[in-house]
Design a protein that fits this description.
By secondary structure, this protein is of the alpha/beta class. Helices cover 28% and strands 18% of the residues. Strands 3-2-1-4-5-7-6 form a 7-stranded mixed sheet. The protein is globular.
Length: 197
């Protein structure tokens, strides 16, 4: 799996890192069902689904996608909404809210609302985010870039062609948003909050 498809044309090191990131994603996904208890009859909300999201990995699941952007080609039920504002679903409408590498793109002052909405609309959740403690910036693959002060990091990432400025989380911050155990996986590269226990 080429996780960094647009970046992988740059050089051999990025292609190698992209392959390793794909392996890490496969390991994370292998733990998805045992960690969440999701079954074929579960209703899942994929928050920040992009063009395919969880459907790319599990096309047989009952998945509803949510994204800020319109996704006319999304292959299933889809709602355009800002999860950090309000999701247009009743309480406990889903068995699981799934969010893969989204929370780090949400401004820190909006994260509590995002987390509250996921906890409101689903009885369980699986929220994955790159760990701030891992030495490679998870999106640009630049060493230590995400540790730079915001005033330096944003122009650097934009100069390298990355428009989305991210604010990685640590285990304590993720646990404060999703008050169940946070797992550190993939050799410290990834944080996953799964709940309830």
């Amino acid at each position: 799996m080429d996780v960094y498809a647009t970046a992988s044309r740059r050089n051999g090191a990025v292609r190698w890192l992209s392959h390793r990131a794909g392996e890490a994603r496969e390991r994370r996904h292998a733990a998805f069902f045992p960690l969440t208890g999701v079954t074929a009859s579960s209703r899942v909300l994929d928050v920040g689904c992009g063009g395919l999201g969880l459907r790319a990995l599990e096309p047989g699941l009952d998945v509803t996608g949510v994204d800020l952007a319109e996704r006319p080609d999304y292959p299933g039920p889809f709602v355009q909404a800002d999860a950090a504002e309000a999701l247009p679903f009743p309480d406990d409408a889903f068995d699981l809210a799934y969010s893969n590498s989204v929370v780090e793109h949400i401004a820190p002052e909006r994260r509590a609302r995002f987390a509250a909405e996921l906890r409101r609309v689903a009885r369980g959740w699986y929220v994955q985010t790159p760990a701030i403690g891992f030495p490679l910036d998870p999106h640009s693959l630049l060493p230590f870039a995400h540790w730079l002060p915001h005033a330096l990091r944003e122009p650097l990432l934009k100069a390298c062609g990355f428009d989305a400025v991210l604010e990685p989380l640590g285990p304590r911050e993720l646990a404060s948003l999703f008050p169940y155990s946070v797992r550190v996986v993939n050799r410290g590269m990834t944080l996953i909050a799964v709940g309830p226990e």
